[in-house]
Design brief:
Elements lengths: L2 H22 L8 H4 L16 H16 L4 E5 L4 H18 L4 H8 L16 E6 L21 H10 L5 E3 L16 E4 H13 L2 H7 L10 H12 L8
Antiparallel strand pairs: 1-2, 2-4, 3-4
Helix pairs in contact: 4-5, 8-9
The protein binds zinc ion (ZN).
Zinc ion binds next to strand 2.
């Protein structure tokens, strides 16, 4: 190789080297409001679990590690669309108002102990999962906080997740911190932080209050500004600080 062309090649590759890192690591992904509210057709991965690619890969690694320690990470729920969440909401609303005779506002308060207003579920993001231990046989509802206490069927699952989930970037969202408001303690609900933190950051910048007042779901005519404000503050934002 002649010296001249050698120098040219060096300078071209030198240039490429300085430019490429910026192209290879673009700034944070922008998510559309449809994606953040479960209204977009996003690409999901997995068979028994439906997650965004990165979250799915991390979950698969965590599942393998748990297996070798005798825990079967069984997915109860992962991605949920807006329509799916609306069906859950409407079913609960009908149950509380028509069957149990609660006033609409009391029914809404009861629903938001554990369930989200459609459009605000972290399950819309393809980053969050509800997990139990598939090896344990339990009676009744598997998503029952008592079943995760010491001496109960999911105690070993909880211990394993406490010690290992963060290695795979999965964090508990609704912790048992007594100072936390909003959704009650959910020892089964984990979130893949590298994706869900930027998603929450973007979601909270939107006018969630306005978006929710436009939605037509059962009982939404009883949504007041005050109710929606405290819902956003308590249920969406008063979560594990590590996920903010
Ligand atoms: Zn959940």
């Amino acid at each position: 190789m002649q010296r001249r062309s050698f120098l040219q090649k060096c300078s071209v590759s030198g240039l490429a080297f300085t430019i490429l890192p910026n192209l290879a690591f673009p700034t944070t992904t922008e998510y559309t409001i449809e994606e953040l509210m479960g209204k977009a057709n996003i690409e999901l991965f997995g068979k028994d679990v439906q997650l965004r690619k990165e979250a799915y890969e991390a979950f698969t690694n965590m599942k393998k590690a748990a297996y070798s320690d005798g825990i079967d990470l069984k997915v109860v729920s992962s991605y949920r669309s807006f329509e799916h969440q609306a069906r859950i909401w409407d079913r609960k609303y009908i149950n509380y108002v028509d069957d149990e005779g609660l006033e609409p506002l009391d029914a809404i308060d009861k629903i938001i102990e554990y369930s989200t207003i459609p459009g605000t579920s972290r399950h819309h993001w393809g980053t969050d999962i509800d997990l139990v231990d598939g090896y344990q046989k339990v009676d009744g509802d598997v998503l029952d906080p008592e079943k995760f206490e010491v001496g109960k069927p999911y105690a070993s699952f909880k211990k394993w997740m406490d010690g290992n989930s963060k290695k795979y970037d999965f964090y508990l969202v609704y912790t048992d911190n007594p100072k936390r408001r909003g959704f009650k303690y959910e020892p089964w609900h984990y979130s893949y932080a590298p994706l869900s933190i930027p998603m929450l950051t973007q979601f909270r910048k939107k006018n969630i209050l306005k978006l929710l007042s436009k939605e037509e779901i059962m009982g939404s005519d009883h949504f007041t500004t005050g109710l929606l404000r405290s819902y956003i503050q308590d249920n969406i934002l008063d979560i594990n600080r590590e996920l903010l």
